[in-house]
Amino acid sequence: QVRLVESGGGLVQAGDSLRVSCAAFGAIQSTDTMGWFRQAPGKEREFVAAINWRTYYSDSLKGRFTISRDSAKNTAYLQMNNLEPEDTAVYYCASSRYYGSSATNTPEFYHYWGQGTQVTVSS
């Protein structure tokens, strides 16, 4: 079992930067894929980024968002720059035992999920 705990969300203004963190506890392995998704009110959960031996990004967010990982701390990070009101959502961390690359952008690829952290961007 793996438990994921997100932190770092909050209220920021448009144009600000924010870094959210995902701490993994339990049977996490350095080869596990870790990913970030987000869900805005009334919308479906949306892929943001993932990392295993390489990084993966949503085409619409690449360039503003950066995913990274500190395996020694079992923690993944999502650095978000130049935030826009449209980035307002609950941001979820997920982990997967799979190490492949073909489906890292789908929720079905992941085995464990955190509770989410709210990010609100005001205009």
Task: Kindly summarize this structure in a few lines.
The chain is mainly beta. It has strands at residues 2-7, 10-13, 18-26, 33-39, 46-51, 55-57, 65-70, 75-80, 89-96, 112-113, 117-122.
Describe the overall structure:
The structure is a single chain. This protein has about 120 residues and is mainly β. Helices cover about 0% and strands about 50% of the residues. It has strands at about 1-5, 10-15, 20-25, 35-40, 45-50, 55, 65-70, 75-80, 90-95, 110-115, 115-120. Strands 2, 4, 5, 6, 9, 10 and 11 form a 7-stranded mixed beta sheet that branches. The chain is globular, with a radius of gyration of 13 Å. The N and C termini lie far apart (about 40 Å).
Give the tags.
single chain, 0% helix, four-stranded antiparallel β-sheet, 11 strands, mainly beta, 123 residues
Topology:
Blueprint: E1 2-7, E2 10-13, E3 18-26, E4 33-39, E5 46-51, E6 55-57, E7 65-70, E8 75-80, E9 89-96, E10 112-113, E11 117-122
Parallel strand pairs: 2-11
Antiparallel strand pairs: 1-3, 3-8, 4-5, 4-9, 5-6, 7-8, 9-10, 9-11
Determine the mean pLDDT.
Answer: 95
| Main beta sheet | 7 strands, mixed
- How helix-rich are the residues, as a percent range? under 10%
User: Ranges with pLDDT <50 over ≥5 residues?
Assistant: none
Number of helices: 0
The rounded distance between the terminal residues' Cα atoms is 40 Å
β-sheet strand percentage: over 45%
